[in-house]
Amino acid sequence: MGSPLMSLPIVSAFRKSVNILRPSGPASVTTWDVAILLNFIRSMGSDDTSPLPQLQLKVILLLRLDLLSRSSDLIKLFRSEVEWTESFFRVRFLRPKEWRAEGKNSVHEWSNWVSVFKVQDHRCCLYRTLKTWFTRTKDRVQWVQVEGVRYQPVLCSTTGKQFRALSVREVSSIAAMGMLAAGIPKNFKPQSIRGAVASALVDYGLPMEQILSQGRWADKSMMIKYYYRKIPRKKGKVSSNLQETLRSTG
To answer: Could you tell me the pTM of the whole model?
Structure first.
């Protein structure tokens, strides 16, 4: 969950100097329509009867859409940090990536809670899909130890007597496979999901404060510069529920 080498002062100074000499820029000048991925997810069939690898793919894609998350975020999700109500669940990340920019040397600290609501369309409802995933894997998922505390990861493998935690590379590879199957051009990588979702929500008029909170962005200017890309869109319905607004684009 991190290397001691990266916390050394000389390494930190080097990284800052590189950022000054070669400041980062937007990863892409365009984006893709999230409706493409949502329609693919709708075609995946029942959560109760799908093979586990297919259910795993659906969970990863929906987590990335609804939490505006990266692969590195998703391996920091643990089952004990998911809280359920009748209409939504909320989750928090262990040491989200955003804290790196603040130089925050955190030990066992958590992000703010992020909520995901039920949606009417059962075919692409993360609330229902994640509950099914937990039920179908709970007796076999391995525990991991992080800074002396044991957790069960949200994401795990689907083979073997016990299901081990997935790595960042594996989560990214599975998401990439799903994007290709959905018909998203292969020049778009899994990290583009975050920008595709944010762009859709901006274009459909969701309040900026809600988008920033869900995506864990510090301010509007940073999100617009690095993630927002305008493309032609179908008419959609804006809802107070972020997930419903997203699905109206499909």
So the answer is: 0.85
